[in-house]
């Protein structure tokens, strides 16, 4: 296969590595090799070693396919990156880059130096006299560290990757070429009367990708449900091992009791339908002109008996399984039973091959620029060495001729000139050193200026966090802001919290570095106590399945104390006081900020980025002595003199008070975001909620438990 001019499309899935090799022969795309390497264990299993499993699979791929010497294109999961589509205003084509760069700064929630990003104008744009009048631009990004993480196994296997693409985009490229090519090539896009759209549902092992496209435009979403959820349901309800449940899922119709198997998996069927309905409903809310006519399903999970029909019945669309490709030739591959039986799982690889052959609609790549540069230098090294050899030969010859001429010339005639040259060389060296120093200073000042005058929103973000935390800390409201005396309101009756320390720490992986097993136990215990106190009920069932925060984030820690520990406040004193106010505040208390237009906008703590509020210590209040704020030494001395003189009615203020104090340590997670990101997320959430409410109001896709058919072949299709 070496040097064939073809392309390898490789997808590292959760259950198997898939690879497809395609070449272009005339107007045809021919598949001339493929490989499907199933792992001994699914990557997400608790006892699996993903790095080793992937390394072994790539090693097998190399051994069986002549070391993979052609171009290589790989996919990464949609949730690993970001895909945004926006409509720029009518603008000159040469100015689109500037607009995209501005959008990248606002749309990508990280510093641009920390991400790999690319963009492209979508097909169907109206171009007149060098102006893009009606266009849509796709912006794609991935964190740089994530890109290197995805490339690492290929680097270890000595496979040079030429292109990195998001899985949903590869699926779009496949559908656009295989099903919509005539429309894209022969029709112009009319945004007022767009062509009909198709929904492409790719069901993976742990998640699924949903793409809505009419060939010209694309909308995509990743959903947290996949084939493994069916397996886990069988594992949970039928008390089976994962391996036995997986086998039973794949061979449900041959089971001893097929009806029981399908009924056990039915909640997952329903969850999948609900997720698809929610996604389509949200899409319709933002594109009311779109008309969806069909559902295309792919991925090996679609081979489950009755799944495709179940989706069609409950979603109301004609369903087509992508078990064959209209424009892919190569009987040597397509006729092989292994490929034929697993064709739906090669859709991504097919899309990758199309991009590698220059036939895709979207041709962006998320290969880090420094890798491209390194390869360019490496590719030019042989030519550079040849040039250096030629230059060295010429220099040597020139030196020999010059030396001969020098030897025949009188030395005194050249001594002055030689000194002048030496002096100028020394001066030039001094100037170069000074120039280098000035360049370094300029670089430093530029970086300093960027830090000082950088993103205005990011300069304000910690001020917003401090204000939010400050607002969450409860304090009593006194008339005219006048603090009452101890006699009027004893310390033990004041709800105030006294914060002695605020600390923050950033974690790149909260689940790995912060959320320990001990902390998980503590958090769930705290939530049980909070629900019992505030709701007089048990926490929801999903709390028990909560595995903690994901990805990166900040841990904000508050240390402090309060005196609200009087016996008359039984049930609301001590730790209960912390739960009632602090925990509730970080779960439910509204946070009000000012938007760019100067208007107040309110966020829930979750919308702001707060989560997982935890009281770390459940201590008992301790008796302590605190200074009496009402103590007046002069008045106390006078009162003591009066009492000494026999006036027993005089009250003497003590210098210290004995009160019960509860010391606490409280933590809460904050996921960093700027105001514009929160506003946009809030808007999208409101639109999605409205769409879901509208969807639920119509009753689309609802079913009844009575619809279940006793026939095993139709159980999976029942609603």
Short description:
The protein starts with 6 loop residues before the first strand and ends with a helix. With 719 residues, the protein is an alpha+beta fold. The protein contains 22 helices and 24 strands.
Features of this protein?
719 residues; alpha+beta; Nucleotidyltransferase, domain 5; 6-stranded mixed beta sheet; 22 helices; 44% helix; 21% strand; globular
Structure description:
This protein has 719 residues and is α+β, with helices and mostly antiparallel strands. It has three domains: 1-179 and 333-367, Nucleotidyltransferase, domain 5 (2-Layer Sandwich); 183-325 and 690-719, 2-Layer Sandwich (Nucleotidyltransferase, domain 5); 456-673, no CATH class. It contains 22 helices and 24 strands. The radius of gyration is 34 Å and the shape is globular. The relative contact order is 0.09.
What is the element layout, followed by pairings?
Layout: E1 7-12, E2 16-25, E3 28-38, H1 50-64, E4 71-76, E5 82-86, E6 91-92, H2 96-107, E7 115-121, E8 126-128, E9 131-134, E10 137-143, H3 144-156, E11 163-166, H4 167-178, H5 181-186, E12 197-203, E13 208-213, E14 218-223, H6 227-238, H7 242-250, H8 258-286, E15 292-298, H9 307-315, E16 318-321, E17 328-329, H10 331-334, H11 337-341, H12 347-356, H13 369-407, H14 412-452, H15 456-472, E18 498-507, H16 510-513, H17 517-535, E19 553-562, H18 574-588, E20 591-594, E21 600-603, H19 605-608, E22 610-615, E23 622-627, H20 633-644, E24 656-670, H21 675-698, H22 712-715
Parallel strand pairs: 1-4, 3-17, 4-11, 12-15, 15-16
Antiparallel strand pairs: 1-2, 2-3, 5-10, 6-9, 7-10, 8-9, 12-13, 13-14, 18-19, 19-24, 20-21, 22-24, 23-24
């Amino acid at each position: 296969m070496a040097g064939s001019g073809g392309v390898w499309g490789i997808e590292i899935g959760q259950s198997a590595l898939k690879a497809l090799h395609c070449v272009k022969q005339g107007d045809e795309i021919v598949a001339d090799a493929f490989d499907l390497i199933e792992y001994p264990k699914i990557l997400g299993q608790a006892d699996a070693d993903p790095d080793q499993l992937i390394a072994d699979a790539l090693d097998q791929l190399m051994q069986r396919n002549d070391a993979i010497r052609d171009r290589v294109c790989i996919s990464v999961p949609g949730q690993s990156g970001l895909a945004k589509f926006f409509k720029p205003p009518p603008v000159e084509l040469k100015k689109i880059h500037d607009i995209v760069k501005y959008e990248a700064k606002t749309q990508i929630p990280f510093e641009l130096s920390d991400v790999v990003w690319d963009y492209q104008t979508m097909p169907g744009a109206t171009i007149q006299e060098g102006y893009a009048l009606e266009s849509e631009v796709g912006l794609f990004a991935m964190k740089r560290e994530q890109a290197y993480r995805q490339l690492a196994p290929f680097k270890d296997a000595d496979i040079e990757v030429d292109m990195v693409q998001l899985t949903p985009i590869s699926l779009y490229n496949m559908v656009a070429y295989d099903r919509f090519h005539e429309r894209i090539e022969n029709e112009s896009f009319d945004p007022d009367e767009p062509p009909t759209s198709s929904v492409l549902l790719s069901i993976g092992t742990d998640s699924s990708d949903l793409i809505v496209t009419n060939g010209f435009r694309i909308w995509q979403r990743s959903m947290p449900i996949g084939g493994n959820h069916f397996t886990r349901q069988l594992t949970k309800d039928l008390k089976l091992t994962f391996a036995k449940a997986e086998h039973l899922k794949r061979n449900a119709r041959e089971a001893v009791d097929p009806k029981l198997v399908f009924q056990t998996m039915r909640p997952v069927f329903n969850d999948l339908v609900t997720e698809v309905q929610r996604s389509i409903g949200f899409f319709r809310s933002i594109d009311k002109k779109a008309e969806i006519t069909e559902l295309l399903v792919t991925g090996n999970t679609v081979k489950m008996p009755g799944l495709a029909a179940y989706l069609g019945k409950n979603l109301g669309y004609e369903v087509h399984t992508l078990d064959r490709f209209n424009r892919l030739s190569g009987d040597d591959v397509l006729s092989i039973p292994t490929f034929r039986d697993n064709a739906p799982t090669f859709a991504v690889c097919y899309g990758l091959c199309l991009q590698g052959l220059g036939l895709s609609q979207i041709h962006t790549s998320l290969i880090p620029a420094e890798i491209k540069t390194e390869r360019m230098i490496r590719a030019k090294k042989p030519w550079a060495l040849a040039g250096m050899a030629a230059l060295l030969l010429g220099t040597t010859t020139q030196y020999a001729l010059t030396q001969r001429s020098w030897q025949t010339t009188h030395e005194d005639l050249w001594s002055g000139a030689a000194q002048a040259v030496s002096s100028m060389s020394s001066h030039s060296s001094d100037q170069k050193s000074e120039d280098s120093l000035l360049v370094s200073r300029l670089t430093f000042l530029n970086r300093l200026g960027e830090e000082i005058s950088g993103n205005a929103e990011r300069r304000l973000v910690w001020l917003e966090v401090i204000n939010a935390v400050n607002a969450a800390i409860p304090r009593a409201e006194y008339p005219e802001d006048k603090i009452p005396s101890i006699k009027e309101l004893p310390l033990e009756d004041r709800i105030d919290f006294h914060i002695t320390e605020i600390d923050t720490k950033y974690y790149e992986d909260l689940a790995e570095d912060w959320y320990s097993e001990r902390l998980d136990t503590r958090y769930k215990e705290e939530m049980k106590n909070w629900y019992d106190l505030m709701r007089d009920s048990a926490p929801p069932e999903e709390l028990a399945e909560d595995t903690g925060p994901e990805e990166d984030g900040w841990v904000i820690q508050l240390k402090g104390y309060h005196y609200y520990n009087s016996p008359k406040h039984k049930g609301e004193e001590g730790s209960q006081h912390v739960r009632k106010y602090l925990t509730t505040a970080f779960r439910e208390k509204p946070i009000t900020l000012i938007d760019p237009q100067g208007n107040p906008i309110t966020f829930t703590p979750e919308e702001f980025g707060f989560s997982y509020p935890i009281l770390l210590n459940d201590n008992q209040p301790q008796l302590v002595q605190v200074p009496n704020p009402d103590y007046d030494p002069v008045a106390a001395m006078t009162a003591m003199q009066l009492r000494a003189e026999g006036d027993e009615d005089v009250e003497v203020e003590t210098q210290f008070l004995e009160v019960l104090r509860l010391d606490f340590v409280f933590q809460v997670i904050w996921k960093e975001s700027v105001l514009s990101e929160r506003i946009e997320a809030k808007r999208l959430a409101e639109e999605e909620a409205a769409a879901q409410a509208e969807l639920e109001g119509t009753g689309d896709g609802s079913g009844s438990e009575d619809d279940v058919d006793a026939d095993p072949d139709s159980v999976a299709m029942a609603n």
